Automatic annotation (TrEMBL):
Cofactor: Mg(2+)
Record-given protein name: dITP/XTP pyrophosphatase
Binding site for substrate: 7-12, 74, 154-157, 177, 182-183
Function: Pyrophosphatase that catalyzes the hydrolysis of nucleoside triphosphates to their monophosphate derivatives, with a high preference for the non-canonical purine nucleotides XTP (xanthosine triphosphate), dITP (deoxyinosine triphosphate) and ITP. Seems to function as a house-cleaning enzyme that removes non-canonical purine nucleotides from the nucleotide pool, thus preventing their incorporation into DNA/RNA and avoiding chromosomal lesions.
Keywords (A to Z) from UniProt: Hydrolase, Magnesium, Metal-binding, Nucleotide metabolism, Nucleotide-binding
EC number: 3.6.1.66
HAMAP family with a match to the protein in the record: Non_canon_purine_NTPase
Enzyme class (EC, first level): hydrolase
Active site: residue positions: 73
Biological process according to GO: nucleotide metabolic process; purine nucleoside triphosphate catabolic process
Organism in which the protein naturally occurs: Campylobacter estrildidarum
GO molecular function: dITP diphosphatase activity; ITP diphosphatase activity; metal ion binding; nucleotide binding; ribonucleoside triphosphate phosphatase activity; XTP diphosphatase activity
Gene from which this protein is expressed: rdgB
């Protein structure tokens, strides 16, 4: 079973490859010429499906028989910001890079006169293949701080402390993050679907 990852985010590719160790995974640009996908959905699930469908539709028939496409749409929702940045996490600041997104988050929290807030990450994972379309979602709860700690991870990890920990995700190893994260939990659900597809509805081998 070959899985094509419909993401151009190298950090996601790294984490997904670590979590789905037993599968043959291919980065988007190993199979297709990268192209822009407009993420105009209203939810993480809608955006995940939009990305996986766009990539699956770009495959030629032979590749459609060979690959399943898996996408990840994710982000962070901050309670004191009424759930922002949510689906706009990647493009929260005008520049849209991780550093300026974190700076904007810190500044918005501080403007409210607080130094931390409850928050959660969400990851929606979509699978699109000739066998059908599926989408699952999971979350990781904790709090965001108004100062950065740690060097690991990406995005908002240096600001986020998961429940039950006293370190940010950027202070944890990738192994530790990959056993508690929103992405790990959503991929655990996706694994059930992958196994079902592999087996085939009537026991026939599809991929
Ligand atoms: P693709 O659409 O190509 O997959 P992207 O980075 O644009 O890449 P999203 O639209 O799903 O992906 O935005 C996800 C953003 O949410 C990401 O850029 C980070 O800012 C944040 N994010 C998601 N998961 C994260 C994680 O595990 N750690 C830190 N930040 C995360």
């Amino acid at each position: 079973m070959k899985i094509l990852l419909a993401t151009s985010n190298k950090h996601k590719v790294f984490e997904i490859k670590e979590i789905l160790k037993d599968y043959k995974l291919y980065a988007f640009d190993e199979v297709l010429k990268p192209f822009e996908i407009e993420e105009n959905g209203k939810s993480f699930k809608e955006n995940a499906l939009i990305k996986a469908r766009a990539v699956f539709n770009a495959l030629v028939q032979k590749q459609k028989n060979e690959f399943l496409v898996l996408s990840d749409d994710s982000g962070i929702c901050v309670e004191v910001l009424d759930g922002k940045p949510g689906i706009y996490s990647a493009r929260f600041s005008n520049k849209g890079d991780d550093k300026s997104n974190r700076e904007k988050l810190i500044s918005e929290i501080k403007q409210l006169g607080v130094c931390e807030s409850k928050a959660y990450y969400i990851a929606a994972i979509a699978i699109v293949s000739s066998y059908g379309e599926y989408v699952v979602q999971a979350s990781m709860h904790g709090k965001v701080m108004s100062e950065e700690r740690g060097e690991n991870g990406f995005g908002y990890d240096s600001l986020f402390i998961p429940n039950g920990f006293d370190k940010t995700l950027a202070q944890l190893s990738s192994n530790e993050k990959n056993t508690i994260s929103h992405r790990f939990k959503a991929l655990e659900l996706a694994l059930i679907i992958l196994k079902m597809i592999k087996k085939g509805k009537k026991g026939e081998k599809i991929y």
